[in-house]
C-alpha cells in the first residue's frame, strides 16, 4: 500500500477503520450516438484531451494532498482498465486498440494509484457496446490479459465486470483465475429483474465489504475462495451514494472494531470532478463525526486488510531443458488453478497455454511447477500469477 508504514498497516488490520476504495471503470472516450443529459449535452466525453483535462483536477498533487486520509496518505484511485477489443462494430467510436486506455491513464499523474481490470465480454454477434449474455461467447479476455503481460509487463489483481454483469460461468472462471472481484453493485436502488442487461445484483449481500460466493449462485454466500466486494454507483441514473450509506460504514467499523470496506465507482469518460469532491466531503465528515479513521486503499489491499491476510510474495522462475521444453516454477502456492502462461509468435499473435501444475515435494527452490513445449515460432514468454494473498508475480522473457 502506497505510503503506509508498518505501524499504520497493523492498525488497519486490527482496529476500526474504513478502507475507502474509489473504483473507476476506465474505458476512454465515447462518441457516436450517445445518451444525452437532461439539458441536451452529451453524457460522455468523446476525446482524450478533454478526459485528461477533467482528470487533472482530481489527480494533481495539490488535490491529492488536500484530500489526505486519516493516516496522512494522498488521495488515490483504482483504475479498472478496459480494452475495447474483440468487437466487429464500433457505433460509439471507441478507440479499439490494445493499451490505449492503459497508456493514456498512465501518462497522467497516477503514480499513487492502483491499476486493475475492467472487461466487457463481446457478444457472439460482435456488435460493439453490446454486453454478452454468455461468458463463453468470446475468448478475448485471454488476448487482453496476455498483451497486458507481454507488452506492458503488468497484470491485474482485481476485476470489475462490464455492466456489472456476471453469469455463473463467468463466476466459475473468475474463481479459478482472480481472487478479487469488485462487481457487486447491490444497493437500495436494486430491483428484481430477469434481464441480464439490467443486472444490479439484487439479492446479493448488501453489507459493506466482501463475501465468498456460492458455486451454484454467485449472489449467495458460499464456500468459493474468491472475494466479491460491494461497490456501488457513486453518481448515476441508477444510484447516488448518500450520506447515510457512508455513515453506515463508519458505524459498522466502530461497532465491530474492525476494518470495513466502503467502495463506490465512477467512469473516466464522465466528468468525475464534482462527484469525487462530493464523496470526499461525505467521508471526511463521517470520519470526524464517528471518530473512526479512514484510509484510501488499493482494491486488493482493502480485501487483505478486511480479512487479515498477510502478504506473501511469490517468485516465478524458469529453466530451459535440452528438449526445448521450459520448466516454469513457483516458490509458493498460487491462487490460480492454472497459471497465466502466454506466448507471442513471430506474427505477433498471443496464445494462452493452459498448463497443469504439479507439486514438488522436498525441493528447497520451488513448490509448484509446470512445463511448456516451445516451438521455433515462439519469440516471447510471459507468466503471471497471484499468491494466496492476492499479490501478483510476473515474468516476461524473450525466447
Q: What's a concise summary of this model?
A:
The chain is an alpha/beta fold. It has helices at residues 6-14, 48-59, 61-66, 100-106, 140-152, 168-177, 243-256, 273-290, 299-306; strands at residues 17-26, 78-81, 114-119, 159-161, 180-184, 210-211, 227-230, 232-233, 259-267, 294-296, 316-320, 325-330, 340-345, 350-353, 358-359, 368-373, 378-386, 392-398. 24% of the residues lie in helices and 23% in strands.
How would you characterize the overall build of this protein?
It is a single chain. By secondary structure, this protein is of the alpha/beta class. It has helices at residues 6-14, 48-59, 61-66, 100-106, 140-152, 168-177, 243-256, 273-290, 299-306; strands spanning 17-26, 78-81, 114-119, 159-161, 180-184, 210-211, 227-230, 232-233, 259-267, 294-296, 316-320, 325-330, 340-345, 350-353, 358-359, 368-373, 378-386, 392-398. The longest helix has 18 residues, at 273-290. The model has no long low-confidence stretch (mean pLDDT 94).
Write the layout of secondary structure elements.
Layout lengths: L5 H9 L2 E10 L21 H12 L1 H6 L11 E4 L18 H7 L7 E6 L20 H13 L6 E3 L6 H10 L2 E5 L25 E2 L15 E4 L1 E2 L9 H14 L2 E9 L5 H18 L3 E3 L2 H8 L9 E5 L4 E6 L9 E6 L4 E4 L4 E2 L8 E6 L4 E9 L5 E7 L1
Parallel strand pairs: 1-2, 1-9, 1-10, 2-3, 3-4, 5-7, 8-9
Antiparallel strand pairs: 6-7, 11-12, 12-16, 13-14, 13-17, 15-16, 17-18
Low-confidence stretches: none
Order of helices and strands: HEHHEHEHEHEEEEHEHEHEEEEEEEE
The protein's oligomeric status is single chain
* Largest sheet descriptor: 7 strands, parallel
* Structural class by helix and strand composition: alpha/beta
User: Could you tell me how far the N terminus lies from the C terminus, measured between alpha carbons in angstroms?
Assistant: 34 Å
Helix content: 10-25%
Q: How many helical elements?
A: 9
Coarse morphology: globular
Return Rg in Å: 21 Å
Mean pLDDT: 94
What fraction strand? 15-25%
Number of strands: 18
Amino acid at each position: 500500500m502506497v505510503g503506509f508504514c508498518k505501524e499504520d498497516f497493523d492498525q488497519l488490520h486490527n482496529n476500526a477503520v474504513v478502507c475507502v476504495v474509489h473504483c473507476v471503470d476506465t474505458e476512454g472516450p465515447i462518441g457516436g450516438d450517445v445518451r444525452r443529459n437532461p439539458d441536451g449535452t452529451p453524457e460522455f466525453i468523446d476525446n482524450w484531451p478533454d478526459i485528461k483535462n477533467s482528470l487533472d483536477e482530481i489527480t494533481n498533487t495539490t488535490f491529492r494532498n488536500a484530500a489526505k486520509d486519516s493516516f496522512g496518505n494522498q488521495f488515490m484511485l483504482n483504475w479498472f482498465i478496459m480494452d475495447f477489443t474483440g468487437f466487429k462494430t464500433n457505433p460509439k467510436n471507441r478507440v479499439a486498440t490494445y493499451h490505449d486506455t492503459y497508456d493514456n491513464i498512465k501518462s497522467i499523474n497516477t503514480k499513487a494509484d492502483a491499476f486493475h481490470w475492467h472487461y466487457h465480454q463481446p457478444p457472439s454477434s460482435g456488435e460493439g457496446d453490446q454486453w454478452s449474455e454468455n461468458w463463453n461467447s468470446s475468448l478475448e479476455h485471454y488476448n487482453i490479459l496476455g498483451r497486458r503481460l507481454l507488452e506492458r509487463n503488468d497484470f491485474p489483481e482485481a476485476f470489475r465486470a462490464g455492466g456489472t454483469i456476471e453469469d455463473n460461468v463467468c463466476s466459475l472462471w473468475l474463481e479459478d483465475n482472480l481472487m478479487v472481484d469488485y462487481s457487486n453493485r447491490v444497493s437500495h436502488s436494486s430491483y428484481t429483474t430477469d434481464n441480464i442487461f439490467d443486472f444490479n445484483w439484487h439479492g446479493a449481500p448488501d453489507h459493506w465489504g466482501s463475501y465468498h460466493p456460492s458455486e451454484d449462485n454467485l449472489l449467495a454466500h458460499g464456500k468459493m475462495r474468491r472475494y466479491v466486494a460491494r461497490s456501488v454507483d457513486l453518481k448515476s441514473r441508477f444510484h447516488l451514494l448518500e450520506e447515510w450509506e457512508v455513515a453506515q460504514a463508519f458505524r459498522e467499523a466502530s461497532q465491530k472494531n474492525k476494518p470495513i470496506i466502503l467502495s463506490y465507482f465512477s467512469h473516466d469518460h464522465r466528468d468525475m470532478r464534482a462527484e469525487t469532491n462530493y464523496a470526499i466531503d461525505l467521508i471526511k465528515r463521517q470520519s470526524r463525526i464517528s471518530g473512526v479513521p479512514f484510509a484510501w486503499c488499493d482494491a486488493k489491499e482493502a480485501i487483505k486488510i478486511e480479512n487479515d491476510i498477510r502478504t506473501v510474495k511469490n517468485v516465478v522462475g524458469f529453466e530451459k531443458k535440452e528438449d526445448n521444453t521450459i520448466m516454469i516454477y513457483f516458490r509458493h502456492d498460487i491462487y490460480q488453478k492454472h497459471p497465466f502462461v502466454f506466448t507471442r509468435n513471430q506474427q505477433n499473435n498471443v496464445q494462452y497455454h493452459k498448463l497443469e501444475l504439479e507439486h514438488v515435494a522436498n525441493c528447497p527452490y520451488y513448490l509448484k511447477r509446470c512445463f511448456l513445449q516451445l516451438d521455433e515460432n515462439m519469440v516471447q514468454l510471459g507468466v503471471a500469477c497471484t499468491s494466496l494473498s492476492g499479490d501478483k508475480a510476473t515474468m516476461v522473457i524473450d525466447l
